[in-house]
Amino acid sequence: MRKTVCLLLVSILLVSLLAVAGCSSNATGVAKTFMTLVKDGKYDEAYTMLTTAKRQQVSLEQFKADLQARDAEKGPITAFKINVKKSILSGSVTAMVLVEVTRAKDGQSVTENLSLGLNTEDGKWALGSY
Questions:
Q1: DSSP 8-class letter at 130
Q2: Are 82 and 97 a contacting pair, CB within 8 Å?
Q3: CB 31 within 8 A of CB 116
Q4: How many CB atoms lie within 10 A of CB 127?
Q5: Which of 12, 14, 20, 64 has its CA 20 to 30 A from that of 45?
C-alpha cells in the first residue's frame, strides 16, 4: 500500500513537471514570435499578441510610438536571444521570459536585457508586459 502511494505521488509529480515544461516552452515560442515582429517593425501584428488588459491600457498608436522611441534612443534591434530563467505558475498561469537584445547604435553593438511577462488568456499565451 505504501509503495503504491509513493508511486502515485511520483507519477503526479512527473506529470506536473512535464506540464510546466510544456507551458514554459510554449511561452518561449510566443516570446520569440513577439520579438521577431518587433525587430522587423511589424508593430501592428505584435500588438495583437498583448493581453486584452494590456491593450486596454495601451493603444496601438502608443505601443508603436513607445517602440519607435526606444529604437530611436537605443538603436534598432539587430538580434535577440530568449532565456527562460523563471517560470511562475499561479492561478492564471504566468511565465517570465528574459530576452537578451542586441541593438546597433552609432556603429556599435549594445546589449540590454528585457523581461516579458506572459499570461494565459483563453488558453493561449499573451504578453501582459514588455
A1: -
A2: yes
A3: yes
A4: 22
A5: 20
